[in-house]
Amino acid sequence: MSRIGKKPIPLPAGVKYKVEGNTVLVEGPKGKVSALIASGITLETKDGFLNVLRESDKVAAFHGLTRALVFNAVHGVTTGWKKDLDIVGIGYRAELKGKGMVVFTLGYSHPIEFPLPTGIEVAIDPKILDNYVGSYELAPNFILTVTREGDRLFTQATGQGKVEVFPESDHDFFLKVIDAQITFETDSQGKATGLVLHQGGDHPARRIQ
User: Fold this and answer.
1) 3-state helix/strand/coil string of 25-77
2) Which of 18, 63, 121, 136 could be stapled to 5 by a disulfide with Cβ–Cβ 3.0 to 4.6 Å?
């Protein structure tokens, strides 16, 4: 563990720390985090790095641990931490409901709504938008084509230009250039089978490609 303890910790600009007793308070762009410092361990800043030092080999067992705790605190207030969740199962999926709720469909008789704690952000994989990419027939010879560019979704009606649509939830999108909304209708796999254009009324469209 002493080899880990000797590794300097890069100290990004805007990050500062304060040691009070056996606790260090690290502050950065994403907030404040405290970490414990074992007795006999000290911190020193040099050339943009934070060094974790031990007084003697008697505390070698805590050297690497303390360095890991301090590193995690610095990382947390700058880059932050994330967790990737893979949902595996036929028809299983997750969708955002506004900005404060995640709705899981996991094979139960009802969806499970999970409110997000304060300060936690959730993003759905942009590839979910691939489920909506295709052509939808609003009327004979009038097709609405949906395409994806990265994490952005676009629509283009027959004879018109391409415009971006913006998410209100996983299934609901709105246009900024005109007062219109789009709701995608999906099957149990999350694949779009049609959509409804909300513009001066509700205009359903079946997916043809």
Assistant:
1) EEEECCEEEEEECCCCEEEEEECCEEEEEECCHHHHHHHHHHHHHHHHHHHHH
2) 63
